[in-house]
Amino acid sequence: MGQEFVLLVSSTVFCVGACGFIIRKNPLIMFMSVELMLNSVNFLLIAYSSFLNSLDGQIFALIIMTVAAAEVVVGLAIILTIFRTRHEMDVDQINALKG
Amino acid sequence: MLSLIIFIPLFAALALIFVDRDNNSLIKTMGLGATSGVLLISLWVLYSFDSSNPGMQFVQNLHWVPALHINYKIGVDGISLWMIVLTAFLGVISIIMSMNQKKGFRNFIALMLALEAGTLGVFLALDTILFYVFWELMLVPTYFIIGLWGEGRRVYATMKFVIYTLVGSLLMLVAIISLTMVHYGATHEVTFDLQVLSQTHIDPFMQIWMFLFFFVAFAIKVPVFPLHSWLPHAYVACPIPALILLTGAMSKTGAYGFLRFCLPLFPDAVNSMALVIGFMAASGMVYGAWIAIAQKDIKALVAYSSISHLGFIVLGIFARNGEGIEGSVLQMVNHGIIASALFLIVGFIEIRMGTRNLGELRGLSKAMPVLYGTFMLVMLAALGLPGLNGFVGEFLILVGVWTSQLLSGLSGVLVLMGGLSIVFASIYMLYMFQGSMQEKPNSEDTSDINANEFKLLLPACFLIVLIGLYPKPFIDRVSPSVESLLHLEKTVNLDAGKGSDSH
Amino acid sequence: MFASSWLILLFPLTGFIFLSWYGKRISKAFVGFIGCGTVGISFLASLVALSDLLFLPAEEGVGKVEVLYQWVSAANFKLDLAILVDPLSVFMFLIVTGVGFVIHVYSIGYMQDDPEYSRFFSYLNLFIFSMLVLVAAADFFFLIVGWALVGLASYLLIGFYKEKTSAVLAARKAFVMNVIGDVGMVIAAFMIFESFGTLNFIDVFDAAPEMFRPNDDQILLITLLLLVGAFAKSAQLPLHTWLPDAMEGPTPVSALIHAATMVTAGVYLIARCHVLYELAPFTMYLIATVGVLTAIFAGTMGMVQYDIKRVIAYSTMSQLGYMFLAMGIGVYSLGMFHLMTHAFFKALLFLAAGSVIHALDGEQDIRKMGGLKNIMPLTHATFLIGALALAGFPLTSGYFSKEAIILSSYHAEMGNFVFWAIALITAGMTAFYIFRVYFATFIGKTRSPDAHPHESPLTMALPLVFLAVLALAGGFLGPLVDAFLAPVFGHEAHHFHDGILETIALIVGIGGIATAALMYQVSKDRIELMKEVFAPLYDLLFHKYYVDEIYDFLIVKPTKAIGTFMEEKAEKQGVDFAVDQVGFQVKEVSRGISFWQTGRVRTYALNMVAGMVIILLFVVFM
Predict the structure, then answer these.
(1) Which residues, including other chains, have CB under 8 Å from residue B281's CB and lie 6 or more apart?
(2) Which residues on neighbouring strands pair with residue A52, listed in sequence order?
(3) Are C72 and C78 in contact (CB under 8 A)?
(4) Does A10 score more than 90 pLDDT?
(5) Is residue A99 part of a domain?
(6) Domain residue limits at A36
(7) Which residues contact C573 (CB under 8 A, 6 or more apart)?
(8) Helix, strand, or coil here: C67?
(9) Does the beta carbon of A25 lie under 8 angstroms from any beta carbon of chain C?
(10) How far is C536 from chain B (nearest CA, A)?
């Protein structure tokens, strides 16, 4: 695989994730898109650690995965609480911070 | 010694927080004690003031923020001397007048003391940042006093007043900082000391906008037409005791600022803008007087008349000659005495009659002969009757305007506007006085002013006659500083080519 | 020795202060004693000043300036508190304190029943003090101070009956007009200071001839501005409307202030500043013109008024016109002489009228009087003497002074035929209207059956007699006055003698008296007939040429309207609105921007992505 291929795939997946986050209303789907974005970055990092023969990329990918896991825990807990109180699965309705 | 003037009321204000809310006698003692102490010290300063010395006296200089070279520097000269005495005097009167405040007495007195401290600090400060700090310090107590103890649309009035003044102050802050930066650029020395900065040569273009920023701040405070629209609301909403300090002392800080900052620091800018500013001031004189004629609420009437009289003061300053400036300083003292006496009288009438509307007041002289006499004297002083103090100031100012080189293009017009505002002053003052005091009374069951209230008015009456009969001692103490102020500008101007290394 | 002249000013001042403070606590008799006493002492002190002046050696100049202390020293403006004692000021001292004293004594009787007795005397003393300051001032500043204080005293005394709305309004009118005059004089003072560097009379008058060519713009402006003050104070056209209304004050006030002293201040001013006026011939001409026009104008109005005091007030305005005419054509000492004789007979007329009013319990309408000749013989006799003097009947004081002016108006260098003609016609009218009053009040049937008139008490009668004597004999003081004032004016006034003109004037005068007699004695129906025939003219005169209404329409109403307008439009909808708008617009912008904060996560995410893209573009392309 060449660098261009990796870059292309990574950025495509990232864009897909970003668009998914912006377009979808269901919080769970939005979460999955966030994971997609994180994964694309991971992919890029690991590929480049191989290209550049340095371990930094892999270490950083591990850190990202840890953070992603923690974030998913907190995020799912928040979504569950919101669902239990409001019975809404539409993110747009949660706009109490509207200024 | 001079610092005591500022810190006695300030510490008293802070100490009042620890006093029990209901311990009225202690609060009264502290309030009166603090203000009387300040008055005594200021009288001592007056007594020991050296009339022949044009420079700053009783100077105290301490390091405050060494990293930024901000010092705590205060001093007194001919121009600020009478301001200090006036403020101290009005402080005592306003505290005595506050004794009737029913709710929140402790807090009210504390805020009044803080206001007095801030005003005194403004007059004494010789470091630009220190000046700014005291300038803002005047605002906070006023906000609370008008907002909490005021009447009518008090929240609207106080918000307008504070935000309006704040805009000006912030512009002033920008100018202060850039002033220091210009000085740094020339001498590689950071200082906020006013006397050092006065020697700085500033390029004319820079001068214009720095002058304008300072000007806006002071013009809002005085106020100068057309930046005056906060005044009617604030004055009408403000309770009388605080109003005495507001109109008597606080409004003068703006005029003082012109003299202390604008004239010495930015002579070229003053040269080019004086005519416009003079016209603004004169318009304010006529405008305020004209609207006062149409007023039915006597408090609003006196408020608009203040706009008119303060316009005189600003006009005299921008004539930029000895007679004009000395007349202005004298008129600052005069207006402080007269306007506060007028508001006291308005307060007395309101307490007894429950109304301030000229339509409902009538024939009060029958029941209140003593008030009739004192009101007449104060009213005559307000309309500038020759022989009393108001006329001396107005005459000197107009002589200054007439012979001014700076205003020579419009001097005739300006003097005529002054004359017109004097004629209007006689009209509205007679409306107010005759309307409330003469003709047949509606009811005769009001009581005359008692001895205590008369004692509040007595010093004002005494000074009105004294300054009218013998103004020389007042002006003699002011002259040397004014002369050096005018001379300083010429020196700075002459040094235009040489930069600021004139000392 | 001249330092004692300060006493002239000091006593009335102490009288004022004492009476205003303690007046209510002491007996009426004591109040009267103090009130008159202070003025009496002033008069004596004036006599002392007179003798000092007469014995002053010629080398020491015309008079002396007494300085009390330096009053102010601000930059170039220096002023001392000083008085000037010279023939002109001593002349005025004597008239003011002398006639003032007599009127004070009269007031003891006249105001006897008034509850505010002490206030009256304190104000009267204040007035005397102020008038003395005015004539004693050694510089323009204190002249203005005295000028304004006199206006104040006049205001207080006109508005003395302060529960009466008409009096309050009249006082206000007088005061505001006075302030207008003050402003004119103040501006003149500025110009004088600018040109001469000082406000001191002696310095200014010494320097003036060298400094200005005749009719120079500067001197013209100065003299015209001073004239504004003079006209306002002396009720000349167009600042005359306050004088008739000033009759709201008690009669002694009208006698003292609006006849003998205050209104003559304008004449005094021109006499004092004659050096300046001589350098402005145009202004002199204007003075004479306005004077003579006022004289005839007032004369026409005096012919139709019913209020006895108002008729006399219009005659004052008219006679002041004569004085101004005299000043305008340069015969200063004749003007001052007429000032003196006028003070005598006009005060006499007012006091006699007051006697009638007092006797009839406040009635002032001549249509309701009549037949008082036998009931009040003393008042009748003194009033007759006063009327004869006013009309210029031969051998009365008024004859000598008025004749001299009328003659000069024709013969003097600056006089002309028109002045003479108008002055003559006015003299005829004067004789007519004063005798109309005389006949209506004293002769014929009694038209006031309800009242019980009686002769006045001694305190009122004595002054009447005294003034009557002066009104008769004062004329012979003419040459003395002339000689006394000559040093001030530089020369004696030229006395003209012209048999033809004198005879014409005599005929006109007697004709006026005769016409009055005819109309009011012989047939009362004729009056009604005349009124119908001349109805429009009559209306015009009765309403004082509608000048008051014109002023109200042109000046008073617009001023009030503009004031209200400014408050509504300029303040509420203009400046204030602008400031409020600033705050309001900031809030609007803030509200507009806050739409961005939708509260939705997805929009925020979109913002983040968009921002990132923009930054990337920046990085790539810059």
Answers:
(1) B224, B225, B311, B312, B314, B315, B318
(2) none
(3) yes
(4) yes
(5) no
(6) 3-93
(7) none
(8) strand
(9) yes
(10) 35
Q: Which residues pair with C81 in a beta bridge?
A: C69
Residues of chain C with pLDDT under 70: 1-2, 58-62, 447-452, 492-493, 520-531
In a domain, A8, yes or no: yes
ipTM greater than cut 0.95: no
Closest residue by Cα to residue C456 from C251, C298, C314, C295: C251
Who's near A9: CB < 8 A, 6+ residues apart?
Answer: A40, A43
B437 contact residues in C (CB cutoff 8 A): 162
pLDDT of the residue at B495? 43
Q: Do C334 and C477 contact (CB within 8 A), yes or no?
A: no
Q: Do B426 and C175 touch (CB under 8 A)?
A: yes
- ∠ CA B365-B384-B400, rounded to 5°: 170
Query: What's the mean per-residue pLDDT of chain A?
Result: 90
Helices (H), B404-497: 411-437, 451-469, 472-494
Q: Is residue A69 part of a domain?
A: yes
The dihedral sign for the CA sequence C24, C28, C34, C40: positive
Counting Cβ atoms within 10 Å, is residue C305 exposed (0-12), middle (13-18) or buried (19+)?
Answer: buried
C346: nearest Cα among C396, C300, C286:
C396
| Contact predicate C240/C294, CB 8 Å | yes
Q: Is A91 on the interface with C (CB under 8 A)?
A: yes
Counting as low any pLDDT under 70, the low residues of chain B are 442-449, 488-503
Dihedral angle at the C-alpha atoms of C127, C130, C131, C134, nearest 10 degrees? Answer: -170
Whether residue A99 and residue C600 make contact (CB cut-off 8 A), yes or no, is no
The set of chains that have 3 or more CB pairs under 8 A with B is: C
Angle at B380 between CA B378 and CA B384, to 5 degrees: 115
Chain-centroid distance, C-alpha C485: 23
Preceding peptide of B223 cis, ω within 30°? yes
Using CA atoms, how far residue B488 sits from B51, B261, B315, B481, C180, in Å, is 18, 12, 20, 10, 39
User: CB–CB of B282/B405 below 8 Å?
Assistant: no
Q: Which residues pair with C78 in a beta bridge?
A: C73
Q: What is the rounded CA–CA span in Å between residue C506 and residue C512?
A: 10
Alpha carbon distance B400, B389 (integer Å) = 17
Q: Cα C436 to the chain's mean position, in Å?
A: 26
SS percent in chain C: helix, strand, coil, step 5: 80, 5, 20
Distance between CA atoms of B197 and B180, rounded to whole angstroms?
7
Q: What is the pLDDT of residue B494?
A: 47
Closest partner CB to B363 (pick from C74, C163, C560): C163
CATH number at residue A61: 1.10.287.3510
Number of domains in chain A: 1
Question: Cα angle at C274 between C340 and C315, to 5 degrees?
Answer: 35
Asked whether residue A98 is domain-assigned, the answer is no
A-facing residues of C in 509-548 (CB < 8 A) are: none
Nearest to C141 by CA among C192, C90, C75, C87: C192
Quote the distance between the C-alpha of residue C232 and its chain's center. Answer: 6
Closest C-alpha to B288, from B240, B216, B331, B227: B227
Per the CB < 8 Å rule, is C71 touching B476? no
DSSP per-residue letters across C373-395: TTTSHHHHHHHHHHHHHHHT-TT
Q: Are B502 and B488 in contact (CB under 8 A)?
A: no
pLDDT digits (tens, 9 = 90+) for B303-354: 999 999 999 999 999 998 888 999 999 999 999 999 999 999 999 888 888 8
Interchain CB distance below 8 Å, A98 and C597: yes
pLDDT of residue B217: 93
The tokens of C92 are what?
A: 């005025």
